[in-house]
Amino acid sequence: MAVTYYLFRSIAWLVSRLPFPILYLKSDALYLLLYFIFGYRKKVVLTNLHRAFPGLDEKERRRIARRYYRNLCDIILENIKVEGMRRSQLAQRVTFSGVEIIDDFHSQGRAVLLALGHCGNWEWAGPALCHHARPRGFAAVKHLSDPRFNRYMEYLRGRFFPGRTIPFKMTLRYLMGMKDEAYMVVLAADQTPTRQESRFWTTFLNQETPFFEGSGKLAHGLGLAVCYVDIQRVRRGYYHGTISTITPNGKASDPGDILLEYVNRLEKSIQEAPDNWLWSHRRWKHQRGEETLHPRKPQRDIV
After folding, report:
1. Cβ–Cβ < 8 Å for 280, 45
2. Segment 256-291, tens digit of pLDDT
């Protein structure tokens, strides 16, 4: 495994030094390999698309799948490219509207939870938000099982803002230690919980889906303001995030309502740009048992 890692790191260093036009030529080649030659998780992707969009014909679902794989290959190489990028480059390539919402909460002394999905380049979104917004920003992340690759990912995530990642399962403990600071914390709240953690179920993309309860519980327990960040691809290598308020005060809101509103907005983002979400993970591998299915509500700001 060590040999594989150091070979990868050597190649990754070279890739990180490529100009963007050459980088995307490499991405095109990677797309041909993943989609046509190896068929990387193609069955998972097509099954997910079929279940999420049963009204689309097979031709349209395959078109979305091909565009998804192109996006995925771009994201893989874009994240490797971080090692050779300048912070100013990242800030130019990931922009936001609604940053003033975060800054206003910061002026009021309120900490903010920024809930996003695995849309666009979510890895670029965290450091870009730290650049554009005033509060000190953190990201709650899951560690990789391989320690070498985990250290590499931590290096990339801390390339411009070192020491800003929080272990996913330690998020509450870390944030309780910063209760007097008006920080912001970025959380991709659409990750798949384990079977034991699948206690919150709702209908999402045409099927019963479990979600981690953490985002709603964190916001309610710590009194965080909650915003949704909709990351969309503008063109190749450029992304734009639209920030909107879910609740100005999680303490005054029901945790389930916060989570359901996040699900509403995420689903709308995916329906508007289906190829922009992460389809190659087994998002629906668990089936609901006796857990309560939480009904969806109309999209709204929670007051």
Report:
1. yes
2. 999 999 999 999 999 999 999 999 999 999 988 877
The CA distance from 70 to 77, in Å, is: 11
Has residue 298 got a pLDDT over 70?
Answer: no
Provide the residue range defining the domain that includes 244: 2-294
DSSP 126-166: HHHHHHHSSS-EEEEEPPPSSHHHHHHHHHHHTSSSTT-EE
Residues 53-86 pLDDT 10s:
999 999 999 999 999 999 999 999 999 999 999 9
Confirm whether 269 is domain-assigned. Answer: yes
Give me the long-range contacts of 150-153 (CB less than 8 A, separation at least 24): 152/5, 152/9, 152/12
Which residues on neighbouring strands pair with residue 239, listed in sequence order? 94, 233
CA neighbor of 162 nearest in space, from 139, 188, 185: 139
Amino acid at 33: L
pLDDT at residue 291 in the model:
77
- 302 within a domain of the structure (yes/no): no
- Give the number of other CB atoms < 10 A from CB of residue 39: 11
pLDDT for 110: 97
The pLDDT assigned to 292 comes to 78
Say which residues have a Cβ less than 8 Å from residue 170's Cβ, sequence separation at least 6.
none
The number of beta carbons lying within 10 Å of the beta carbon of residue 84 is: 17
- Cβ neighbours of residue 194 under 8 Å, at least 6 residues apart? none
Domain count across the chain: 1
pLDDT at residue 297 greater than cutoff 80: no
Domain membership of residue 303 (yes or no) is no
On whether residue 151 sits in a domain, the answer given is yes
> What is the reported pLDDT for 300?
56
Separation of alpha carbons 193 and 199, rounded Å: 9
Look-up of token digits 């990789």? 144
Q: How far apart are CA 139 and CA 158, in angstroms?
A: 10
